[in-house]
Amino acid sequence: MLCEHLKEIEEEIINNDYTETFRGKSWTDNCREWVYFDVVLDLKKLNENFKLNPCIEFHENTDPRSGLEKGLFCSKCQDGIMGNISGEETFPA
Questions:
Q1: Contacts of 88 (CB under 8 A, 6+ apart)
Q2: Alpha-carbon distance 69 to 61, whole Å?
Q3: Cα separation, 80 vs 3, whole angstroms
Q4: Do β-strands 34-41 and 80-84 pair in parallel, antiparallel, or remain unpaired?
Q5: Interatomic CA distance for residues 13 and 49, integer angstroms
Q6: Cα Rg, the chain, nearest whole Å
Q7: How crowded is residue 84: how many other Cβ atoms within 10 Å of its Cβ?
Q8: Where are the domains of the chain?
Q9: Full-prediction pTM beyond 0.70?
Q10: 92: cis peptide before it, omega within 30°?
Q11: Contact between 48 and 33 (Cβ < 8 Å)
């Protein structure tokens, strides 16, 4: 499980039956655990719905060579929740 700052969002995504595509240490040493889901994360709605801690940052990588991703990163714990850049399904809906 991810850190206390992202745990509630992670649980909600899992409870909504979105597919987890990767979990573990991602592409850099600055990461502890990152989890990827096959859904577009609506960062604005997540911030409104979950009242994100100030240590949570929005993250977006648009470089197709290193992987397209958009999600949330905890600067305190080095955990992240990532989703797709584009697609039909969005969380929260």
A1: none
A2: 5
A3: 9
A4: parallel
A5: 13
A6: 12
A7: 19
A8: 7-91
A9: yes
A10: yes
A11: no
How does pLDDT run across 83-92, given as a tens digit for each residue?
999 999 999 9
Which tokens is 84 given? 């797709």
Asked if residue 55 lies in contact with residue 75, where contact means CB atoms within 8 angstroms, the answer is: yes
pLDDT recorded at residue 25? 78
With helix as H, strand as E and coil as C, how does the chain read?
Answer: CCCCCCHHHHHHHHHCCCCEEEEECCCCCCCCCEEEEEEEECHHHHHHHHCCCCCEEEEEECCCCCCCEEEEEECCCCCEEEEECCCCCEECC
Comparing C-alpha atoms, which of 14, 17, 8, 18 is closest to residue 84? Answer: 18
